[in-house]
Amino acid sequence: MLGFPPAVAAAPPSSVLILNSYDQGYSWTDGEVAGIHSVLGDSPSWVQLSVEYLDWRRFPSQQNHDQVEKLLQARYGASRPDVLIVTDNPALDFALDYRSTLFAGVPIVFCGINDYQTSLLRGAKDVTGVAEEIDPAGTLALALRLHAHATSVYVITDFTETGLAVRQTIQSVVPEFQDRAAFTFSPDATVAELMDAVAALPGGTIILAAPFIRDEGDVFIDMPEFTVELARHTSLPIYGIYEQGLGQGIVGGVLTSPQLEGAKAGGLVARILAGEPAGSIPVVTRQSTHVAFDWRRLEAFGIPVSSLPTGATVINRPVTILDTNRRLVVFTTVVMLLLVLGIVFLGINDVRRERAEARALRLATAIEQAAEAIAITDPNGVVTYINPAFEHATGFPDAESRGRNIRGLLGDEVALPLERRAEEHLTTYDSWKKKITSVRKDGSLVELDLTVSPVRGPGDEVANYTYVGRDITQEAALEEQLRQSQKLEGIGLLAGGVAHDFNNILTGILGYANMLEPDAAPGSTMQEGLHVIQQAAERAAELTKQLLSFARRGKRQNTTVDLNSTILEVVSLLTRTVNKNISVTEHFDTDQATVLGDPGQLQQVVLNLAINGRDAMPQGGSLTFRTRRQRLNVEQLMAHPGAEPGVFVALSVSDTGVGIEKKNLRRIFEPFFTTKDVDKGTGMGLAMVYGIVKAHQGFINVESDIGKGATFTVYVPATDVVPAIAHTANLPHKGHGRILIIDDEEVVRKLAREMLRRAGYDVVTAAGMTEAVTWYRAHPHEADLVIIDMVMPGKDGQECFKALKAIDPDVRAILSTGYGLDGHAQDTLDAGMVGYVQKPYHMEDLITAVADALADLPS
Questions:
Q1: Using alpha carbons only, what angle is made at residue 355 by residues 354 and 356, rounded to the nearest 5 degrees?
Q2: Does pTM surpass 0.85?
Q3: What is the pLDDT of residue 228?
Q4: What are the start-end ranges of the H helices in 666-707?
Q5: How many helices (H) and strands (E) does the chain have?
Q6: Which of 74, 503, 671, 776 is the S-S candidate for 839 at Cβ 3.0 to 4.6 Å?
Q7: Rounded to whole angstroms, how far apart are CA atoms 710 and 658?
């Protein structure tokens, strides 16, 4: 009997009798009593608890009932309890059987009742309680989820009334899991036999330990002892249905708790003692289970706590300082967190400071090492900083630059951003850009692509100006050379066109004069006039030849030329013609000064440069010729479009004359430009040099200072081919055969026809491709030779030749052109023509070209 005396006896005590079905020390019964005590022992009113045991597990007989009835009658017959609590089915049956004699009018509260139904109460009044429930399906679902590789379940129950009832419940839920695992139920056996069977179970098996309190040999064993013995005989995971096995070898599960049921029953008793009728209180259901696990078994099977259902109870978890001193841990954590945050804050500030210093250092280093000239001034233009590139660009060292106004270093033009900000629209956020020309400290000029930008202060005022200039002196020079080259190219195209048309006119004048002169009476005025006409036409032809040379359309041959030999030939000529006060010398730095080109034109280049140097030294001086081989790359040839990287022969002609003014340097190669007197120069000498050199894929550099003379250096691609030996051609004889002349100029057609008829040829003429093709198709194989003009309206000479070849693949043709043999004309010859004749031509030129073309025809 348990009693709890009150601190102050304010009212008669309330007595509660707990009548247990089983014996004291049986874990299930002890759990129920502990649960009841946990509630009623904390009740604010004084409650006297009395506990009695039927011991039905060991003595299940009517005789036992009769003896207990007598005992209880003796103890409680005179003073019945205010409430009777019965635990499990035997005690409930006993109370109902003897209620009229022992407990008449006493409210009954039950707990631990298996398979509760209202019929169990037999219609009794003032009876309520807690129905015991099990959840084997919940436990099986958890076990199979936590052990995903398990393939079978071994279910253990005894064959007592309770064990068989639980077995039947488990069998009813097995169909839910048949597709997940195979189920086996234990036989009626002794504990030892069961342990042997469990030890032999294969891996991948889960054991479900249901109630087992008596084996086949009527040996009693309590549930905790049984699960401990199971765990000792197997390493397989064991799950349970009742809470007594928790901490005694099972992993866990959805467990029915005797203590939870007792606590619920104690709560119902408290309500009855407070005045609530027992008959009005419904029976409590579905509140006797909870999810619980043993941490040690979870660790053994590697099951993380995070995989458990939310709210699950875990026992035997290691006690941490957080569990025992939560406030201290929280306070310490907060303090440590604040300290860490403080350290992090200081660290971040330190990192930011270091990064800012590193950025400042990188910026300063970048400015110091920048290729652009950089200067910083105050708002008034006084220099506070310059970088090394600025020193290099202007020639002013840092010591001389600091403290000076920027206009003293770069010129007045750069003061515009300072003095005329409103007019120049230069605000805090704007920049001023311009290309300027400044004077270096040594007096030379430097061109800068300058950007002036304001630097904003804290109050949006202009605190400084930055001047960033890129030295474009060399770029500007290259651009000027390129512009000059393009200008000369345009002039060359114009000159070539004029020369071609003029050659067509001269062909008629010179040809007719040349052809008719022999017909005039010797010494007559007619003969003299024709001779004068020829001389004038030949001078005009020479001028057009110079124009074609400038236009790069006058290159006629492509043979190996030794420029050293060419210089020696020119020097030999000069020594007989120049004044004695001019010394002529040559210096050959290479014995391989060979190039591919026209010997006559290249000699003309050397001669023209020599004459130009001679004319620049009226008071005498030195004229020097030099040659060398030099390899040039792409970067060195940027200012010379058309020149390909490789080895060049550099031929220079230097004089010590008056020099060339800078303003004239860009125009010296223009046709008809000259600074000489009217009777001393035509302005075509250097223009002709330029055209010939360009036609040979070369270029020219000029260096000159007033009063110090000038040096012209010609660069022509080098070759290692040995010069060929020239042979003298034979003069033509009287000819025969039919010639087809195709030319759009009537005067040229008439002239050529007359010249060839006088030489014995039969001649047919056509004014263009259409007329020629029509005739040729009507008279196939009748023309022994075709003379085709290169440039004609509509279809040109090349297309005309292709059209004739389509009719007769063996057609013979020569080209007649007012241009030279460069470019398109050479392509036309390469298409299969057998020769060409240059306009304007003498009668013997035309007849020789025709005779050569027909030389291998049978007579």
A1: 90
A2: no
A3: 94
A4: 685-695
A5: 28, 29
A6: 503
A7: 8
Q: Residue 64's pLDDT is what? A: 86
Which pLDDT score is estimated for 729?
Answer: 43
Strand-pairing partners, residue 766, are: 742
Task: Give me the DSSP letters along 74-116.
Answer: HHHSSS--SEEEEEHHHHHHHHHHTHHHH-TT--EEEEEETT-
CA 172/CA 149 separation, integer angstroms: 24
The Cα 531–Cα 510 span in angstroms is 10
Would you list the DSSP string of 321-390? HHHH-HHHHHHHHHHHHHHHHHHHHHHHHHHHHHHHHHHHHHHHHHHHH-SSEEEEE-TT-BEEEE-HHH
Q: What is the pLDDT of residue 641?
A: 79
Integer angstrom CA distances of residue 825 from 549, 692, 841: 15, 17, 17
Compute φ and ψ for 597, nearest 5 degrees. 175, -165
**Which strand (E) or helix (H) includes residue 701?**
strand 699-705
Got the DSSP string for 772-809? HHHHHHHSTT--SEEEEES--SSS-HHHHHHHHHHH-T
| Residue closest to 805 by CA, chosen among 839, 828, 838, 823 | 828
What would the two tokens of residue 686 be?
């250097």
Phi-psi region of 646 (alpha: psi -120 to 50; beta: other; left: phi over 0): left
The pLDDT of residue 259? 93
Q: What is the DSSP letter of 196?
A: H
Could you give phi then psi for residue 766, rounded to 5 degrees? -140, 140
Q: Give the pLDDT score at 191.
A: 93
Q: What is the model's pLDDT at position 419?
A: 62
Q: Give CA–CA dist 111/128, Å, rounded.
A: 9
- 628 - beta bridge partners? 650
According to the model, what pLDDT value does residue 556 have? 55
pLDDT (tens digit, 9 = 90+) per residue, 364-412?
788 777 878 888 888 888 888 888 888 888 888 888 888 888 777 777 7
d(CA 383, CA 405): 6
- Residue 114 and residue 208 in contact, taking contact as beta carbons nearer than 8 Å: no
What residue type is assigned to position 659 of the chain?
A: G
Q: What's 597-647 look like in SS3?
A: ECHHHHHHHHHHHHHHHHHCCCCCEEEEEEEEEEEECCHHHCCCCCCCCEE
CB 813 within 8 A of CB 766: no
What is the rounded CA–CA span in Å between residue 839 and residue 815? 10
Instruction: Tell how strand 738-742 and strand 762-766 pair up.
Output: parallel
* 654 contacts 613 by C-beta, under 8 angstroms: yes
Distance CA 75, CA 50 (A): 11
Strands 709-717 and 699-705: antiparallel
The answer to whether 813 and 799 are in contact (CB under 8 A) is: no
Cα–Cα dist 418/416, whole Å: 5
Contact call for residues 793 and 763 (beta carbons, < 8 A) = no
Q: How far apart (Å, rounded) are the C-alpha atoms in residues 545 and 446? A: 42
Cβ atoms of residues 122 and 141 within 8 Å: no
How do strand 383-386 and strand 432-439 relate by DSSP bridges?
unpaired
| CB-based contact 623:655 (threshold 8 Å) | yes
Taking residue 524's Cβ as centre, other Cβ atoms within 10 Å add up to: 10
Residue type at 498? V
Task: Give the residue carrying structure tokens 């342990």.
Answer: 195
Cα Rg, the chain, nearest whole Å: 63
Chain centre distance of CA 90: 83
Question: Cα(695)–Cα(549) distance, rounded to whole angstroms?
Answer: 8
Which run of H or of E encompasses 712?
A: strand 709-717
| 28 within 8 A of 112, measured Cβ to Cβ | yes
